[in-house]
Design goal:
- By secondary structure, the protein is an alpha/beta fold.
- The chain has a domain at about 5-130.
- The chain has 3 helices and 9 strands; from the N terminus they run βββββββββααα.
- The strands form 2 sheets. Strands 1-3-5-7-9 form a 5-stranded parallel beta sheet, covered by helices on one side.
- The longest helix has 17 residues, at about 145-165.
- The model has no long low-confidence stretch (mean pLDDT about 95).
């Protein structure tokens, strides 16, 4: 509806195989949605997340941030789409997916997309995948942390941007605890 607002947080943490289609439909003028995603895959997990931010009317706003970490032989697929319908002028859409590879055998596929069918809109997207910076690990170790503690600190810091967006303390705290318990020593 008009001026509707939604904050949606997803924790993708379990399951050998998971496929999730997450659709945010902005159907009323000046409606907005914030989508947060925390993904952590390990073992032989295969996680596939398809997100759609669908702007169907004028002056809508969407903001999606997904962050993922992968260790062992896990595989993560994220396919994001911002779709702006004709007439949805002044739509403002943002999507970003960042992934941190914690092993040489983990794999990620990040596929952001835009489908813009209106003029006078602002939509941006991005995706990254990278490894832990060994210099960050070394720096933490020179301050007395073990390699495992340093890795835990760096990985938790990677997720901090999305954790800071979560307004429900119990959800943010639970996700932080899970991340810290799952991290093993980084083998770069």
């Amino acid at each position: 509806g008009e001026r509707a607002s939604l904050e949606w947080t997803l924790g993708a943490l379990g399951g050998r195989l998971a496929k999730v289609n997450q659709h945010l439909v902005l159907d009323g003028p000046e409606s907005e949605g914030i989508v947060n995603g925390v993904m952590f895959a390990e073992g032989h997990q295969h996680l596939a997340y398809h997100t759609l931010q669908h702007h169907r009317t004028a002056r809508t706003k969407s903001d999606l941030l997904y962050k993922g970490a992968l260790q062992d032989h896990s595989h993560l697929v994220w396919r994001g789409m911002i779709r702006v319908e004709p007439g949805a002028i002044r739509a403002d859409g943002y999507q970003r997916n960042d992934n941190l590879m914690l092993s040489q055998t983990a794999r990620t596929d990040c596929i952001p997309g835009l489908e813009i069918l209106a003029d006078d809109v602002r939509c941006t997207h991005g995706a990254t995948a990278g490894r832990v910076d060994e210099e960050e690990i070394f720096y933490c170790q020179t301050r007395g942390l073990t390699r495992r503690e340093a890795t835990r600190l760096v990985v938790t810091g990677f997720f901090q941007q999305v954790l800071d967006r979560i307004t429900v303390d119990s959800v943010r705290d639970a996700l932080t605890d899970i991340i810290q318990h799952r991290v093993r020593e980084y083998q770069g």
